[in-house]
Design a protein that fits this description.
The chain is an alpha+beta fold and about 190 residues long. It contains 4 helices and 4 strands. A hairpin with a 5-residue loop joins strand 1 and strand 2.
């Protein structure tokens, strides 16, 4: 019969795999730390470059702002008022000229029923370059005009529709006439 006798004060334990795993983990963590330090230094360099570019752009914006203020001061002088008024007038003419009649009529054709007539149309452009159409439409009955107004409101090309007035048929005019204004969502 064998009796195991251990005379050591602490029993033998196999810690070599634990030490090897700890050493491997230490190497991986050290490599990760080195990589993160490298990325931090590289990012710091990019941030410095971005700050320099931002400062250059801010200087350019400031110089353009000074130039714009100088030019506006020049235009505000009394001797240049006539030129400024003429430029504003010409700009408004150019905005009106930029309206495509072909596109307007093509878009209206898509929302107008066949039995509604377009009597007159007057586009207007506001300061934000938005187009408003002031129209007079006519029909022998009211339902086709109401259908047209509903189609306009549901169309992505037209905005809210406002009916300013309407007149019933008379001896001289056998049609219902509606004066309508609508936002036209085509940009110049």
């Amino acid at each position: 019969m064998r009796i195991p006798v251990n005379l050591a004060s602490e029993p033998f334990q196999q810690v070599r795999p634990l030490l090897a795993a700890t050493a491997a983990l230490g190497v991986v963590l050290s490599a990760s730390l080195a990589f993160l330090l490298y990325l931090t230094v590289q990012e710091r360099g990019r941030a410095a470059e971005t700050r320099r570019e931002l400062a250059a752009l801010q200087q350019e914006i400031a110089s353009l702002g000074r130039e714009q203020a100088r030019l506006q001061e020049l235009l505000r002088r009394p001797e240049n008022a006539a030129v400024l008024d003429q430029a504003a007038f010409l700009n408004s003419l150019l905005y009106r000229k930029a309206i495509s009649w072909t596109r307007i009529f093509g878009d209206l054709e898509g929302v107008m029923p066949h039995n509604v007539r377009l009597i007159s149309i007057r586009p207007q452009v506001d300061s934000q370059s938005e187009i408003f159409l002031d129209m007079v439409v006519a029909s022998q009955a009211q339902p086709p005009v109401i259908e047209m107004l509903q189609r306009m409101e549901n169309s992505p090309l037209f905005g809210s529709v406002e009916v300013h007035s309407w007149t019933p048929p008379s001896q001289e005019q056998p049609l219902y006439r509606y004066r309508v204004s609508v936002n036209y969502n085509r940009r110049l």
